[in-house]
Amino acid sequence: MRAFFLFLALMAACCGSSLAAVPVLLIDVEPMVLPGNPPGYGPDFFAALGQETGLEFETRVQPAARVLAELRQGQQLGLLPEVDATLQRIAPVLDIDLMILPAAGVHAGKIADFSGLRVGRVRGGCVALLQLPEVNVYDVNTPDQGMRMLRAGRLDGFCSNSTVLGWQLKKSALRWRDFPPAVAIGKQNLWLMAGPDVQPAMLARLRAGVEVMVRKGRIKALHDKYHMGMDDK
Questions:
Q1: Do 140 and 66 belong to one domain?
Q2: Taking the CA of residue 107 as centre, how many other CA atoms within 13 Å lie in the half-sphere pointing to its CB?
Q3: Distance separating alpha carbons of residues 97 and 128, to the nearest angstrom
Q4: Count: domains in the chain
Q5: Which end of the chain is more exposed for a tag (fewer CB within 10 A), N or C?
Q6: Does 78 share its domain with 103?
Q7: pTM, whole model, 2 decimals?
Q8: Chain centre distance of CA 20
């Protein structure tokens, strides 16, 4: 009997690491993460991915710049709208509409119309703004800060994706029609990304899990649950 328990202890010691939760970093922005129930797109996505892959995920929430910095250093996963050459692409998750919401009184039909104006973005996002040096790009730490500055007239426009902007409007009991028409500046993918040390076998397992989620309609269901686009929800 004693030998049996020793065998169990040895098995736990040698195999416990294989059962460890996969670390995940999520950007601290709504609706990627939410303070209540539902918990946000990120936690719901990885819960569904866990069901399809048999993996367990442990999520941490960090500002966007810190998420990118930590992902570059190891074996963690993340959902990122901007593709970074130092990270490993696993699979595109959904398409994102990138746009600028003008402040009251600002009328623009294309990105060039913001020349000479001050446009906010969450730090490191909306890379398309950098293609027009005449735009005065102002980095904010959170979408909440950007929307407050936009409503106060301290920004002429605020750049983000339609889902993030929609959630900000909802929180403030506002609608799209309370502002001048938003200016679409392009599309980008939200990617499931991995740090440089994540092994190929794990990448393949995760990629297969995302493919199953797509086939079952789980990706679309998540999008429909959290998308706050150009409607008046």
A1: no
A2: 1
A3: 12
A4: 2
A5: N
A6: no
A7: 0.81
A8: 24
The H or E element spanning position 59 is: strand 57-62
Phi, psi of 78, deg, nearest 5: -160, 160
> Hey, CA dihedral for 66, 72, 78, 80, is it positive or negative?
positive
Examine residue 38 and state whether it is found in any structural domain, yes or no: yes
Q: Among residues 91, 90, 145, 86, which one has the least CA distance to residue 121?
A: 145
Q: Per-residue pLDDT for the chain (233 aa), expressed as one digit of tens each?
A: 444 434 434 344 444 434 589 999 999 888 999 988 889 999 999 999 999 999 999 999 998 878 888 999 988 999 988 777 889 999 999 888 899 999 999 999 998 899 899 999 988 788 777 777 788 999 998 899 999 999 999 999 999 999 899 999 988 899 999 999 999 988 888 999 999 999 999 999 999 999 999 999 999 999 888 886 665 44
Q: If we measure between CA atoms, which residue out of 84, 81, 91 comes closest to residue 213? A: 91
Peptide bond into 81 cis (omega under 30): no
Structure tokens at 99: 């746009």
Residue 128: inside a domain: yes
